[in-house]
Amino acid sequence: MGYTCFELEETEGVAHLILSRPDELNSMIPSFWTELPEIVDELSDSGRARVLVISSTGKHFSAGMDLSVFTGGSNIVDSGDAEPGHPSNEVGRRRAVLRRNVLHLQRAFSCLEEARMPVLAAVQGGAVGGAVDMVTAADCRYATEDAWFCIQEINIGMTADVGTLQRLPKLIPDGVVREFAYTGARMSAARAKEVGLVNEVYADQETMLAAVHEIAAEIASKSPLAIQGTKESILYARDHSVAESLDFISLWQTGMFHPTDMMESFKAQADKRNPVFNDLNEQRRGL
Fold it and tell me: In this predicted model, what pLDDT tens digit does every residue of 164-200 receive, in sequence order?
């Protein structure tokens, strides 16, 4: 299937999603916000992807939300205005539509957290505005030496509202988040690694992608059910107390843990071979 904003490659359990509008700095046009969750949800639901790598093309990872999202009748951030005097033009109804549209944008990145497989983001050049929202929703982030990050919203007179201000404080120190968010300054790759925003910095994109795909292949070699449980437990622990999180994992193990994959691991070690695990079962939405 062809996409406007992305290319998708799949090899041995590793899905590679590539932002593919380099001449437009991979800005996030209206179709971006529907294509991304569509692709990620399908990969997660099918069970065939054990890890997802997201990278980009051109000089910059992404310039963030395209102005066409705000203009041109896209209706993504349209407030639902009608003709003056029309009942639909009442301010409460317009604001309710706007809120639903903001939630639509948020879901485009929340799908990365909701996915059953880990998501690894590989960033080159600038990650601006919405791109920071996007990569903070990934499990791990990697960058080239020339990469930089910017919470651009504050520079254009608005508050970031698609995930950065909610997820970044869980990733880096509070004071750093506040300075970064209040000033709209660029954070270099070196500084991002220093504060823990990115896992590693590489000399160039080719080197970065080779390393990230090696990490992805290692993840893909593990039990996908154990990986899913690990991801869900980490996310749950982020937002809950230790006691609540221990209760969560006790329920997960009681319901989802079975020895099949563990016995395969032990047998593979004894046989001096790599273990072979079944994919996750396909799941259906809305049932």
Answer: 999 999 999 999 999 999 999 999 999 999 999 999 9
Whether the full predicted model's pTM is greater than 0.85, yes or no, is yes
Buried/exposed code over 62-74 (b: 16+ C-beta within 10 A; e: otherwise): bbbbbeebeeeeb
- Beta-bridged to residue 18, according to DSSP, are 7, 55
Give the pLDDT score at 257.
84
Can you give the pLDDT at residue 39? 98
Question: If we measure between CA atoms, which residue out of 212, 74, 195, 182 comes closest to residue 136?
Answer: 195
For residue 259 the two structure tokens come to 């020895």
14-19 and 51-55 as β-strands: parallel, antiparallel, unpaired? Answer: parallel
More confident residue, 79 or 19: 19
Q: Which tokens in the block code for residue 54?
A: 């997201």
Radius of gyration of the chain (CA): 20
Residues 6 or more apart whose Cβ sits within 8 Å of residue 159 = 153, 165
Q: Residue 146 CB: number of other CB atoms within 10 A? A: 17
Question: What's the CA gap between 169 and 176, in Å, rounded?
Answer: 9
Superfamily of domain 6-220: 2-enoyl-CoA Hydratase; Chain A, domain 1 (3.90.226.10)
Tokens 């549209």 found at: 101
Q: Note the pLDDT of residue 287.
A: 57
Burial string for 163-186 (b: 16+ CB within 10 Å, else e) reads bbbebbeebbeeebbeebbeeebe
In whole angstroms, what is the distance from residue 279 CA to residue 46 CA?
9
- Domain ranges for the chain: 6-220, 224-271
**Nearest CA to 212 among 53, 62, 60, 56?**
53
Three-class DSSP category at 123: strand
